[in-house]
Amino acid sequence: MNSEQLSGRREFLTTSAKVVAACTLLGSVSAGAAAQSAPKSGVSRITDKHYYLDDALLETGFNFRDSTVIGTQTELKTIEINDGKIVAVLPNKQHPNAVLNTYSAQGKLMLPAFRDMHIHLDKTFYGGPWQAPQSREGKTIMDMITLEQKMLPELQPFTQERAHALIDLIQSHGSTIARSHCNIEPVSGLKNLEALQTVLDKRQQDLTCEIVAFPQHGLLLSKSVPLMREAMQAGAHYVGGLDPTNVDGAMEKSLDAMFQIALDYNKGVDIHLHETSPAGLAAINYMIKTVDENRSLRGKVTISHAFALAILNPEDADAMAKRLAEQQITIASTVPIGTLHMPLKTLNKNGVFVMTGTDSVIDHWSPFGLGDMLEKANLYAQLYTRPDELALSRSLAIATGNVLPLDEKGQQVWPAKGDDASFVLVDASCSAEAVARISPRQAAFHKGYLASGTVEKSLG
């Protein structure tokens, strides 16, 4: 059997299974009646403000054996969407307002929208010809900064075109919410910011994206403080920073400058902290102290990467997690593979908000980013949890901003009336399967707008 035949057979089996499941759940609907339902037509654009989405597979609870979760219950439902919000979750194919257009999710699993919370939309090879990064053997961060200073002017003519392509990529994988770091330094000035803002202005309907003004060449080293202040005035949402000891050579002075900009403009902070030496821990401790002394920063500070946490022993990691949680400091981890084992479970257990992102997607830093948050959830599950139904379902949280269909006890908490109609349709039977198998995505919706993929429209 060739791959085309195998793919067709899998699709047939999947579809058949879901028809049977739907008939079982609805009881009164026979297989014959299902076969005689209204014809449908595939659409990739929905212009309706108010409509129904039938055949959405929702998680409704867990199956237990004694106290152990052994499976996930699901049911086909109709979602009523109006003005970007979910206004009702109805029995499948129940349409109180017969005038509204109706679409079908075709039995695909409905999951909360994915969130790519650490990406660089402004400098990528993606969308252009293949280009592997230059060898980094023997190179320091300073060497990479020198390389980037040369490359940035060559990339800038393509910034908008490639940012659009990269957005299309992450949306095809289900992400319609993002946070992008954007270079702010003397080589780029505000050019990258202006280009990215132009792109995001055109994508308002299908993407919500925050911008971090990122001094990639060192906040102090490249004398970028005035430019960072201009970026805040121009509309950037977060003040960025980079390795205050290894790059700027003055940890306290660098962090003080970063936080002062944030305080002056009432912005958040999102710093790249790669340092794994004691200097990295010193920087984290200093940031905790700064937030404690400036309570307006609570809930507004993110430490990206935070690799220094990987060198802590379990007791120290637990203590650090409690202090981070108290100051409501978020960790943005790209779920590294290799020798760095981050205490992500310890952070979660202590109430630290942990999110993830793509980081680099085919650029001069790395060629491996796929732009897929479900892949990140899969990595998290493999590295940090057990391969059982409950643990796999919980692992989805790192890709969705902690929004999950079911709580720990199996009570349905999403979707609910009033939620944004931002979700992804996945070819899977439940969250656990989606995470374990990195299941295919069919469509992504952003506040009721079909951002990527297709659904079917009922024709009558």
Label the overall shape.
Answer: globular
**What is the radius of gyration?**
23 Å
Terminal CA distance: 38 Å
Category from helices, strands and their pairing: alpha/beta
The poorly predicted ranges are 1-36
* Proportion of residues in β-strands: 15-25%
Total count of helical runs of at least 4 residues: 14
The largest beta-sheet arranges its strands as 7-8-9-10-11-12-13-14
Mean pLDDT score: 91
- How many DSSP E strands? 18
Main sheet attributes: strand count, strand direction, barrel closure:
8 strands, parallel
Portion of residues in helices? 25-40%
Structure notes:
This protein is α/β, with parallel strands linked by helices and 460 residues long. It has 14 helices and 18 strands. The protein has helices at 3-26, 31-35, 141-155, 159-172, 191-202, 225-233, 251-265, 278-293, 314-326, 344-349, 373-384, 389-395, 397-400, 431-437; strands at 40-43, 50-65, 68-82, 85-91, 101-104, 109-112, 114-119, 175-183, 208-214, 238-242, 268-273, 301-305, 330-332, 354-355, 423-426, 441-446, 449-453, 455-458. The strands form three sheets. It has an eight-stranded parallel sheet. The protein starts with a helix and ends with a strand. Residues 1-36 have low confidence and may be disordered.
Summary keywords:
460 residues, alpha/beta, 8-stranded parallel sheet, 14 helices, 18 strands, 24% strand
